[in-house]
Predict the structure.
Amino acid sequence: MARVWDNLREWYRDRRSRLDLFDETLVTRQANPFYLLGPMLYYFWLVTVVSGILLMFWYEPTPEGAYNSILHIQHAVPLGWLIRGVHKYAADGVILCIILRIYRMYFLGEYKRPGELSWMWGFAGLVLAMISGITGYLLIWNQRAFWAAKTVLTVPVYFDELTAKIPVIGERFNLGSMIAYLFLGGPAIGAATLTRFYALHFGISLVLLIVIEVFYYRTRRQRLNMSLFPILVFSAMLVYISWALPAELGRRADPNRTPLPILSDWYFLALYQYVKYTPPLWAGLGPGLLIGFGMLVPFLDRSKGRRPLERPFFFVVGLLALIYFLVFTALILFNIAVIEREPPLVLLVTTVVLSLAFVWEIRYRRRQARAAAQAQAAPPAPARAAAH
Amino acid sequence: MAHDRAMDRRRFLRAAASLPLAAGLVAFASPLLRFLKPNVDPFDVLQPTRHDPPAGEPVVAATLAELQKPWDFKYFVYTQKYPQYTPEGFRSASVPGVAIRLPAKIRMPWDWVRATGETPQFTESEIIVFSRICPHLGCIYNFVQDWREITAGYGGYVPPRERQHALMGCPCHLSIYDPADPEMPGRVLSGPAPRPPRTFFYTIEGDRVLVRRVEPGGIA
């Protein structure tokens, strides 16, 4: 037991020493924009936090005052539209950078040893950023905010079906309802919900920022591994987008009327389509399983190579995830859903593609093994002098 | 030897001091933890609301004059009150509902009413009152008088000939319900909803349809 513990600690220390949260160690590849995603992520995050603190001066977290205070910020506060736009678009930038970076890490096998911990932090960061996003857009108290919060917090209620199956505990312990009550602060969305979401929205970024700062302080790494030029370009971009495409306000929340069609923020759209397709318990469990898979990928993928084609199964899984993300988003944008026809189709395609990927993986591994055996059977090549 | 005993005593004192300290910490933490679960009995921290079920004042959903022809309907809002530690002693949530006149009498789906300690006036009726909270994920669904609108805007469901009448559709995730299904009023025709919408228990007094309770469950 003690040895297992020692090994674990050794593993953790080793990975921690090579933790690379914002691509600080990849300085040599800065010419490639895909390796600029780390510093960009940190930059957008800082902008979001600073503009968010400015917004807090005027924002009022009550059901009566929230929407009006946003109106006030947008139209009466000097440069209020800019602060709000920068906050929104920088936050979108954070999410976009994390998503792109996660896909880069996935397809290039950067999650493999010694990058396991970096990957897990990155993935957890995506989940937390999305939670911060959804808690953030409830604060506007418009129709989208209200209905997004309502549907999101009804999803866990179906976990009660699982706890109900446990003999004695199930009658007293309703896990799902408890989660929903905790976030809603009662039986329905109200004033308590707003303050709780406000606290979460603010708390997630700030706590993470403190953790990251402590990490920087102790490892003496560089914070923004990016020259001045991209920083200026990104800042100008944020200002321009906030001016050209002001952050939307929508209609004031009306608890008695559901708008048609109802859409959430862009990074939740695919999930929203998935929720349309599946029975409610699975709508809750599916994302959980996806997060679990993401966190455990470094330990599930035992293949040797780092290049995509050297690990066919996981390559196909990643590709499928990317395609589903794009296709589901497109489907919901065009409001196409024939509920009787599409879910079985999606399930069928997934099953077939994953089975084929599995066969491909096995065949690839067999071929590798055969090649290795042949190389061993052949006489060793004559030793050559090292080239200079 | 004497030294050892002195250490023992110190350890004993430390243990004795730590007990009230720990108790103090728990006493300090308990109101904070309780704050996380409002409208709960103070000592029964694991149970949300089973011992104090929500209830509200009876509300007039519609008058019989408003529901004369088949498929006449009326929207209304019922205020459900949950016991809670607020100045008013309760916290209220709105439950929107719809009262519908059906073309034929059906059996009322009121098996849940007896558990609330009330007995229905009648078991069959042409008027049915649904909660408009979608049992899927809690959006407010709509009563759609023309079924073609369901096909166009709510996910492409084409009802069979015998169901081509007013239906109910949720804009969030495209669940479609048939309010007039004789075996199971509000039967799910299409979409991810796991059950029919919850019903209201009502009585008819004079000309008024008086809504008394809403079927428990779900989040308002």
